[in-house]
Amino acid sequence: MVTPQEASRRRRIVYHASRSRLPDEMVNAAVKLCDREFQAIPVFSIQKFLTRLTEAVGTPPKPGELFAAMNRLRVITDLDEIGPDPVGPLPVAKVQTAVAEPSPTRGRPSEPPSRDSRIDSWPASFTALLSGLLAELQHLGPDMPAAARAGFALQLQKVDLSPAGYAELNSWADEKLCTFTNRITSADMHAGVHALYVWSCEELGPIETDRLFSAVIRDVSQYPGAAQFPPRNLL
Amino acid sequence: MTPEVQVLLNTLWVVTAAILVFFMQAGFALVESGMVRAKNAINVIMKNYCDMCVGALGFWAVGYGLMFGLSPTGWFGTTKFAPNSAEPFEYTLLFFQMMFAATAATIVSGALAERIRFNAYLVGSFMITTLIYPIYGSWAWNDNGWLKQLGFIDFAGSTVVHTVGACCALAGLAALGPRTGRYAKDGTPRPIPGHNLPFVALGGFILWLGWFGFNAGSTTAADVGIGRIALNTHLAGCASVVGTIFLCGLLGRPVLLTSVVNASLAGLVAITAGCAFVTPGSAILIGLIAAPVMLLGEAFLDAFKLDDAVGAIPVHGFCGVWGTFAVGIFKESGVDVRQMCIQLLGSAAAFGFVFPVAYVMYRMIGSWMKLRVASVDEQRGLDYAEHGEVGYPEFQDGLLHGGTASTGAAPATRPATTNRPVIASPIGRN
């Protein structure tokens, strides 16, 4: 696992280097590939990335230029100087370092998860679940994730949480925290999921909420390691 | 025919009718469980199964005496409690009336579905069959009951059984509140469709079948009148369905299965009071009018955010009142204004007595043992949260809490908000 900043840096490098050199669908595939397979490994090898990209979608039009552009961007330390994160305000972008990103494809089978990305703890499973829910909500409206975070924060006031859990969940609601840590307890995680459930029921209705949770649970359950930390158990 | 043979035939008929009424419990279970989400199906069936049991015991011990014991004041009976040495036909009547009491209680089950705690519901059912239903029933059906003395007519229980059950359900709704997310912030109701419409249809058929025993058995005698009663019962149910189809067409609404099944029940409820006193043509009119009464009743409840999960109150409450009132209009002797007033008084007395008493009862149960499940249990479904099992384990994995993790890792424990202890889930595929 890498830090959220490093994950965002890798995604920015891939996106900004490729967007003026590759067709749109290949840019999207490159970003997805980066998120899926290159956010859990400590060293980001551009050569290895391009090899995998070629295997996945075919040879890029100007591979040499792409390699050079990525290399140039890699030396820039200021993230904003590289350019905005392509996933941008999407909350799911924040957790890609911790766990594999749940597929935002609604109603379609998700792509098979990478062997390199694993859910290796309950907080990681919890992170993936919440991120997946926000990613699904994004499909319902661009303002939904922000509304969900705000509603989530309000719901948290009504439940008993450990001090650490309260701090982490509130930080997540404020978008200051991307990945939950082992300081959060099981009761905190249950309460967190439930807070989002109640908000969703009130906002979207119980049927849509059940569908939403069901889809995300199915999605997150496919990731490596999810069998040991089944997201269903967090409901 | 000798009197002995007549008694034998009466006994056979009434016991058979009671068995048909008993079978209505299966109908209620199917209708109600089909109309709720899959995660609450078992809970609804459990409530139907168990309220009948606690109700039977309570009715035998206390209810029957209150309802049919000697009533010097006309307000409740004072003898025949826990009968152990009665005339043989008295046992037959007790058995038959016991099924009626269970029917009144089980009407509540569907209305309060998906949010009431199982234990609290059973306590409520026990109180309904032991006290509330028998006391009102004594007013209308005890020979010395004050309503009966006034001339109140409720042949098989449009008010005594159905309106009383609906008033209890209404009180429960007022005490419980709607299901989470049932109404949007602007008050718009959000539909929560049931998970198994074939169940609803089968339940409707079973209830309809049972209704022949319910109404025709209320003669408590094997006489020639039962044919017309059964015919009237059937015609009213059919007319209400036709009326609903017609109304839906007029309003440009789709004809839903749930509407059709509820419409048939509405017609059956409406004819229950007067099935022995009206002509078949009048039965059809009573059934036809029950259709708009039911549809208006549904809209009325939604306007007040009263979340009746299966539409029990419009069917049993509003149509019960309509059917009771209709006796004054349609009985064979002609329109009788005095009778109409008495009929209205009977319905008003049912509401005036049952609703407040049941409301206080549910409030007391709530303060004693919590009436409503924790919202996290509502999320997980009452099947798992209240009973530790689910109706469709092969198909529900995606929706369900997986129980205790086989890893013994952190989320093996459950949050403090739930009432249920940690158990190993039978559904987990960890």
Defining key terms:
heterodimer, A: 235 residues, 57% helix, B: 430 residues, Ammonium transporter fold, 66% helix, 0% strand
Q: Can you tell me about this structure?
A:
- Chain A is mainly α.
- Chain A has helices at 4-18, 24-37, 46-57, 63-74, 79-82, 122-140, 144-156, 163-173, 186-204, 206-221.
- Chain A contains ten helices and no strands.
- In chain A, helix 1 (4-18) runs antiparallel to helix 2.
- The longest helix of chain B has 33 residues, at 3-35.
- Chain B has 430 residues and is an all-alpha fold.
- Residues 402-430 of chain B have low confidence and may be disordered.
- The A-B interface holds A 122, 159-160, 185-187, 189-191, 194, 197-198, 200-202, 204-207, 209-210, 213-215, 217-218, 227-230, 232-235 and B 37, 39, 179-182, 184-185, 190-193, 375-376, 379-380, 397-405, 407, 409-417, 428, 430.
Order of helices and strands of chain A: HHHHHHHHHH
Q: Low-confidence parts of chain A lasting 5 or more residues at pLDDT below 50?
A: 89-116
Structural class of chain A: mainly alpha
CATH class of chain B: Mainly Alpha
Taking the sheet with the most strands of chain B, its summary is: none
Instruction: Please tally the β strands of chain B and state the result.
Output: 0
Low-confidence stretches of chain B: 402-430
> N- to C-terminal separation of chain A?
25 Å
* Helix residue percentage of chain A: 55-70%
Give the domain tally of chain B: 1
Which range best describes the helical content of chain B: under 10%, 10-25%, 25-40%, 40-55%, 55-70% or over 70%? 55-70%
Query: How would you classify the quaternary structure?
Result: heterodimer
- State the distance separating the first and last CA atoms of chain B: 70 Å
Classification by helices and strands of chain B = mainly alpha
Mean pLDDT of chain B: 91
Instruction: Return the average pLDDT of chain A rounded to an integer.
Output: 78
Rg of chain B to the nearest angstrom?
22 Å
Largest sheet of chain A: none
Largest interface: A-B, 34 and 37 residues
